[in-house]
Design goal:
five-stranded mixed β-sheet; 21 helices; Beta-lactamase; five-stranded antiparallel β-sheet; alpha+beta
């Protein structure tokens, strides 16, 4: 059988067959779609991350290219004395700074092209060595130092070397010198207004007012304790700068600086100068190591003067020995010696163990156990006034031993020994009075004439306000007061007045402080001579001598306390009546004249011992 041949189909043209689009497999289509969507999702996520979570970083990077936040320094508050005289003031100065990141140093001999323009915001400005030399000359600094500063770089978190955007070149220049620097037009060098502290009184008042550091922060004295009050609050100004450092416009509200407040102290600058001068004169005459003096208003407890030697110049930025910065009146402690005896007599009178006319037998020496202490000579029978007048160690010890340990400790505590005076001065010393339960008889006896306990000169001066205020102890203050603050009644007014009058006898012939007398004024006070403790033992060559007194006795106006450290023992005239009493006399006499206090005695009131009278002093 013959098979039929299939019918031939006419073939399509060749161009039509190849012009048909190729058919893609379905999985390929979906792959491309998913890939493109993934890319879009990544871009969208990156955009969200940059705009939402990392916006702050990007904004900072952008602002760093052209924005600057300028600090507006606040003027530090002035410190004045009680009459408004300046003790610390701030004067405007200019400080020069540079941005090493925005500049690059050219090789020697190469200058910046006149038509130079930055290719990008990050492109640093080239600076020639000749410009740096002119800059160094204007700054009065070595060329090598300025070059080193401008070439300085540090490692960042990624280990890359990065130049800082801010670097001080010179702080606190005068406006004229800063103007000379800025006239050079060195790219990347700018100026900023700051304030520098100036102390008109210099070393006379250094330990009271204190100092600030180069950034204007208090470091010592009342500059430190009243930092919050004096410092004020800095302002700010955000601006846009061009590549040359010129301000184009402000981009935010200017926050003005708030200046610090004025601090008015109780110090009288005239009395302060007087106290410093006389203390310095007395220390030089005694060839002593150091000294301190304080003048109090006897009625209010205000500190009118406080002098320390050696001192230092707070206007100088040079390194100072820390010993010169010590405010010895407040921060140092010492054994008060015989200046403690009035408090013992007052306690004995208050307790009733002695009376004004009581007689105490002093035999010249006293032995308790293995220890023996003595007077300069045997005074025989002495009443309380005689114990103070002749500064009898034996008499004071016997009165102290008449009281119980607990009662005597209570009086020490009430007088403020071993406790803060709350004067507000930094680093105030408390001193030390041991618990009464640990006292032995010899310790109770020696504390009665000022050994075996430690105090500050400020504590002792405050204690004497008990005798000038009818038994009321006044608080100490360094700020001027409108009205006196209430004090603490420690002893009765009768006892206080009795002891006050007894202390006048100390300055009369037969007493240990005849050199404390003042023409036209009745003076009361007490001398003190104490051996210094060296390597745990009392030295026989080093002493701390003092005198604390008040005037006029009829109506006390001032209390002056003087302490001299290690006067020369040559000639055997190292005790308080010879060294400290004359300093007291000069300070007190001058201060009474400055304040215009009327005399309470005739002009011929000075009574000196006879030429054949024995020289009186404390036995230590």
């Amino acid at each position: 059988m013959k098979l039929a041949r299939p019918k031939r189909v006419a073939s399509q043209p060749r161009q039509q067959r190849f012009a048909q689009p190729p058919k893609l497999e379905r999985w390929r289509v979906w792959f491309v779609v998913v890939f493109l969507l993934s890319l879009f999702a990544i871009l969208l996520g990156r955009g969200l991350y940059l705009q939402a979570w990392n916006e702050g970083f990007l904004q900072e990077q952008g602002d760093a290219r052209y924005m600057r936040n300028l600090r507006q320094a606040a003027n530090r508050g002035m410190i004045t004395d009680r009459h408004g005289e300046p003790l610390a003031i701030s004067t405007p100065v200019q400080s020069i700074w540079a941005s090493p990141r925005s500049m690059t140093l050219l090789p020697d001999g190469q200058e910046r092209a006149a038509d130079w323009e930055p290719k990008s915001e990050k492109d640093p400005v080239p600076v020639s060595k000749s410009e740096i030399k002119k800059l160094a000359t204007a700054l009065q600094q070595p060329f090598e130092d300025i070059t080193k500063k401008l070439s300085y770089s540090r490692k960042n978190a990624k280990g890359e070397s990065v130049k800082p955007d801010f670097l001080w070149l010179n702080r606190h220049m005068s406006p004229n010198d800063a103007k000379t620097v800025m006239a050079l037009n060195v790219p990347g060098v700018y100026t900023q207004t700051e304030y520098r502290r100036y102390y008109p009184a210099g070393d006379v008042m250094a330990q009271i007012v204190g100092t600030t550091d180069i950034d204007g922060k208090g470091q010592e004295g009342f500059e430190l304790t009243r930092e919050a009050m004096l410092a004020g609050k800095s302002g700010s100004r955000t601006v846009i700068r061009d590549r040359r450092g010129y301000i184009v416009e402000d981009v935010s509200t200017i926050v003005p600086a708030k200046d610090g407040e004025t601090l008015q102290l109780s110090i009288d600058r005239k009395i302060q100068y007087l106290a410093y001068r006389e203390l310095k004169k007395g220390i030089e005459a005694a060839n002593a190591v150091a000294g301190a003096a304080v003048v109090l208003d006897a009625k209010t407890g205000e500190v009118l003067a406080l002098a320390n030697l050696p001192s230092y110049n707070p206007n100088s930025r040079e390194r100072v020995d820390l010993g010169r910065k010590r405010n010895r009146v407040v921060t140092d402690t010492y054994e008060p010696g015989s200046t403690m005896k009035p408090f013992i007599i007052a306690a004995g009178l208050e307790q009733g163990v002695i009376k004004p006319n009581s007689v105490v037998m002093t035999t010249g020496s006293m032995t308790i156990g293995p220890a023996t202490f003595k007077d300069t000579r045997n005074y025989g029978q002495l009443n309380p006034e005689g114990i103070l007048k002749h500064s009898s160690n034996v008499g004071a010890a016997k009165v102290g031993l008449m009281m119980s340990r607990e009662n005597l400790w209570t009086y020490f505590n009430n007088y403020g020994f071993g406790a803060s005076t709350h004067s507000g001065f930094p680093g105030e010393a408390f001193g030390r009075v041991r618990p009464w339960k640990t006292w032995r008889p010899i310790e109770q006896a020696t504390m009665s004439f000022g050994h075996g306990l430690s105090v500050s000169l400020m504590q002792m001066a405050r204690g004497y306000t008990v005798f000038t205020n009818s038994g009321e102890m006044k608080p100490i203050t360094f700020t001027k007061m409108i009205a006196p603050s209430p004090g603490k009644q420690v002893i009765s007014s009768k006892t206080a007045d009795l002891v006050k009058n007894m202390l006048e006898a100390v300055t009369q012939p037969g007493g240990t402080a005849t050199k404390a007398q003042i023409v036209g004024f009745r003076v009361g006070g007490k001398t003190g001579t104490a051996r210094k403790i060296v390597n745990g033992q009392y030295s026989r060559e080093k002493y701390e001598v003092s005198f604390i007194g008040f005037a006029p006795v009829s109506n006390p106006r001032l209390i002056v306390a003087v302490l001299v450290d290690e006067p020369s023992t040559v000639g055997n005239r190292y005790y308080g009546g010879w060294v400290s009493a004359p300093i007291f006399q000069e300070i007190m006499a001058g201060s009474l004249r400055i304040l215009g206090v009327p005399p309470d005695a005739p002009m011929n009131n000075i009574l000196l011992p006879g030429l054949d009278a024995p020289e009186l002093r404390e036995e230590t």
